[in-house]
Write a structure and sequence with these properties.
The structure is a single chain. With 252 residues, this protein is mainly alpha-helical. It has one domain. Helix content is 77%, strand content 0%. It has 11 helices and no strands. The two termini are 29 Å apart.
């Protein structure tokens, strides 16, 4: 996995970039299917596999077509004749991996069923790959056409209103791990809104949120797993007295 991440950050070939991006999720798919705790890991693995196939396969076909007609370098994307149609799949592939509201159904199930190591890797590294992919492809657009602006407006308002809906879902959660997974969707939508703002401050804020979430979210999952091993439960009704027993832990 480490070598795939290195290839992803260092390569200038978009086909190698795509393959290393998807192979990382194949590894976490096998990790979830093999090391999951309950039988629900099959459903969580199916959700991850379904979203990856539906949104990634059209992008792979377009990347191969562009590779055969032009070149494999990022610079030649500007000469790609299907650019408007192409950008739909670029945004959707990386938005699924973030994930944004509407594409997030696989994330809570994967977090709940994965062991603590899987949750840490998923929250700290893999979810940030979607944001990095948007940053990598975003700089290739000189001028946004009308169809591209429609896609961006759709994603902007989807993140804006979807964050409110997911916040309401967090209020009614009784499983702490599920609540943290849904709160990650809320935090990531702030990053997407800053990126789609098309300003320098928005981009800086998006990078800051991605880095901060990459450190904080794995720590929270580790603390919840420690609490689960001590109390043998993740339900808020059972753990509601932890504030009196260990206030420093609740503060963290």
């Amino acid at each position: 996995m480490f070598f795939l991440l290195c290839f992803r950050f260092l390569t200038s070939n978009y086909l190698v970039f795509y393959l290393s991006f998807e192979l990382v999720f194949v590894l976490i798919f096998c990790f979830l299917l093999g090391w999951g705790k309950t039988a629900e890991r099959l459903q969580a693995s199916f959700y991850m596999f379904f979203y990856t196939i539906v949104f990634s396969l059209p992008l792979l076909v377009l990347l191969v077509d562009c590779y055969l007609n032009f070149s494999g370098l990022f610079y030649f994307f500007r000469t790609f004749s299907y650019l408007d149609f192409f950008w739909v799949f670029i945004f959707f592939v990386f938005v699924v991996k973030l994930p944004l509201f509407g594409f997030h159904l696989w994330l809570p199930k994967a977090h709940v069923e994965a062991p603590v190591a899987g949750s840490i890797i998923l929250a700290g590294v893999l979810l940030k790959l979607g944001g990095y992919g948007i940053f990598r492809f975003f700089s290739l657009v000189d001028e946004l056409s009308y169809s591209n602006s429609l896609i961006i407006n759709f994603l902007f308002y989807l993140g804006l209103y979807g964050g409110v809906f997911v916040s309401l879902i967090c209020v009614r959660q009784i499983d702490l791990k599920m609540m943290i997974a849904y709160s990650s969707v809320v935090h990531i939508r702030v990053m997407v809104l800053g990126l789609l703002r098309f300003s320098s401050w928005g981009v800086y804020g998006s990078v800051l949120i991605m880095v901060a979430h990459g450190f904080i979210s794995p720590i929270i999952f580790y603390l919840i797993t420690y609490l689960y091993e001590f109390k043998h439960s993740r339900r808020i009704m059972v753990l509601k007295g932890v504030l009196l027993v260990n206030p420093l832990f609740c503060l963290l």
